[in-house]
Amino acid sequence: xxxxxxGEKLQGIIKKLRGQSRLSDANMEAMLKEIRVALLEADVNxxxxxxxxxxxxxxxxxxxxxxxxxxSQMIVSIVQDELTKLLGGEEKTxxxxxxxxxxxxxxxxxxxxxxxxxxxxxxxxxxKEKKKVLLGALDVYRPAAIEQLExxxxxxxxxxxxxxxxxxxxxxxxxxxYAYDNHFDALILDTxxxxxxxETLMDELKNIKKEIEPDFILLVVDAMSGQEAANVALTFNDxxxxxxxxxxxxxxDARGGAALxxxxxxxxxxxxxxxxxxxxxxxxxxPDRMASRILGMGDILTLVEKAKEEVDEKQAKKxxxxxxxxxxxxxxxxxxxxxxxxxxSMAILRxxxxxxxxSDEQKALMKKELRNFEIIISSMTxxxxxxxxxxxxxxxxxxxxxxxxxxxDINRMLNRFYKTKEMMKQMKGMSKGGKIPPGFxxxxxxx
Amino acid sequence: MGLxxxxxxxxKKKTVSExxxxxxxxLSKSRNELSLKMKTLAKKxxxxxxxxFEQLEEILIEADVGANLTLALVEETINLAKAxxxxxxxxxxxxxxxxxFQKYYDDYKDNHEIKFRDDRxxxxxxxxxxxxxxTTSIAKLGYRYLKQGKxxxxxxADTFRAAAIEQLDxxxxxLDVPIVKGSPNEDPSSVIYRGLDYMISHGIDLLxxxxxxxLHNKDYLxxxxxxxxxxxxxxxxxxxxxxxxxxxxxxxxNGLEQARAFLGTLPLTGLIITKMxxxxxxxxxxxxxxxxxxxxxxxxLGEKMDDLKLFDLDKxxxxxxxxxxxx
Lengths: 447, 327
Description:
Chain A is α/β, with parallel strands linked by helices and 447 residues long. Chain A folds into 3 domains: 4-87, Up-down Bundle (Four Helix Bundle (Hemerythrin (Met), subunit A)), CATH 1.20.120; 102-285, P-loop containing nucleotide triphosphate hydrolases (Rossmann fold); 304-443, Signal recognition particle, SRP54 subunit, M-domain (434 Repressor (Amino-terminal Domain), Orthogonal Bundle), CATH 1.10.260.30. Chain A has 18 helices and 8 strands. In chain A, strands 3-2-4-1-5-6-7-8 form an 8-stranded mixed β-sheet, with helices on both faces. The longest helix of chain A is centred in the last third of the chain and has 25 residues, at 407-431. The two termini of chain A are 23 Å apart. Mean pLDDT of chain A is 84; it is low at 432-447. With 327 residues, chain B is an alpha/beta fold. Chain B contains 13 helices and 8 strands. Chain B has helices spanning 3-10, 18-26, 28-44, 50-62, 67-83, 89-107, 134-147, 164-175, 188-202, 219-236, 254-265, 284-292, 313-321, and strands at residues 122-127, 152-156, 179-181, 206-210, 242-248, 270-274, 296-300, 308-310. Chain B has an 8-stranded mixed β-sheet, sandwiched between helices. In chain B, β2, α8 and β3 (179-181) form a beta-alpha-beta unit. In chain B, α3 runs antiparallel to α4, α4 (50-62) packs antiparallel against α5 and α5 crosses α6 (89-107). In chain B, 48% of the residues are buried. The chains are: A alpha/beta (447), B alpha/beta (327). The interface between A and B is large, with 47 and 48 residues.
């Protein structure tokens, strides 16, 4: 996940303040200096860093942080506010037209991820907003770019408009007409990658814009790009008057400099972010949530949304209920693990506030363990799953043989199961008949 | 002798070749960002003070040299300037430039073409994160060595990205080069295995292997790359003759993380820097050299087939620091 190293540094810096009941001038300056270096290292633009530090300093002085009793908390909230501002303040989503096709033109440098982002955006509107989407292939230069778009379109079951390698301006016009004639809700046009200094290709984009008057022009920016990102956005913006950005490859370990600099330097905001390799890995960008994720405060809103989207709510409720009743069995544990897997499993942990950071190895171990549990449970009879108490030595031996595991693996799995069950009972005591929110029932993990 | 005077001396009398021109043009944006800004700063400054150094820092960081390296370099400059009692802005600038590039220079060994062997073809594995220009670089490398009379073959082992195989296939057709293709979602290792067989049975001199773009922080994808490497080793008794990492010049400090991660999985023999003409930065080359000692082997200076050049440090620095439009 992007921002990770910046986040760790900022959290570390702020943590140092935590024990202190008062803050001195010197402490604060030292902290600001550290924040400055952390931001610069994360590829945040120099000017942005300067203004950020100034803002934090003046707010801290304005609110008399030095005299207050819990300075670290105040600093955190100031930093959070300022980060949110840098990331774009309040999010403004793109609303599609009601009575005619919305035309979205995707532009960007080579390799920034336009074609993939076009397909992801199409999937977003099709699946989340139930819209009829058309993809238009205007990249007539890169070998096999059209095929790429067509293959992706097929995967998400969306129609493609293409005319092979003809004049992109003409294809754009025809695609628009096709979208109008066939009552599409949205037309997303994938264009060729180009350098901002390439005048011929920039003119081509201007012509396309003039001819088809798109509702939105979105620039796709690679999250890993460095100080150049702002320049690129500025040149494209000058030429085309952009409506916003899609930041791709945010699932990399990018330090986030581009995302943190672009709003300040160009006034453009990020609308969507690409968060994985699958075609449904495109998310609306929420500056406030990202800011709190950077500061390690989790992102419970996204977690709830994800859970609602991915988890079968009825199933989750049923399990939650069973858990509280205490008749939680191995079948339930299995289906719980499935639900967890659906959520993109390990990535989700980062959204949980206070969740310790797991190393890749730990994550891989956890995954392996879960997979092993699944294999073991699959080798049991349905009676054994419903009533694990009957599993004694001879059954264990059989299960071990059937699943290719050792008896101690079976024991470990059963131990986990009983522990989880025990935890459920305690939770029931705590909640005293109170309700566990749907979706969360399915999230209590067997570890 | 300072670096600048050395370069000026070296390029003084020589006639300007086509390649020199390409370097010059491709680096003009970077030159404006780095050396021109430094010169302007020196001209405007009446004296050297703390503010002057801060502005130098700013210029370097904005050129993607990286905060840590920049802060260290500027501090060293301050100390040296004090010791040598320098206070002319021009002198300070030269001192900083020397510090910046001297290490690179000392490390630098003459760059060479891809290694060829007598007993069999040379295997070159091309890797990198998504969108850096792996496939295009392969086409350009193929073009380069076809011109040198080598028998080239492509292996399309990016079986993940939609139409990646078709993309390389189209290049292969244009260049009239044989290609061993995988089918979508086939295990890349098995495609590569077939490629190696083809190389040996058809007397190919250069086997260029295209791999899927993979983010360096995705464990499972890096493991796949490790497997590819092992398969090559198993088939040939030795790892790929060259494993090159393709880096996009517009990448910021993340380029360092990319190089580090790939280096942890593969015995990289060098870097290909792409899209240099599109950026005004490129300071990341410095940071990578400083930390990982990976040589830049090829550099992409334009979109034409022959715009992927063998990296020439003298030319690079001359174009970056001085250029044809000197004063």
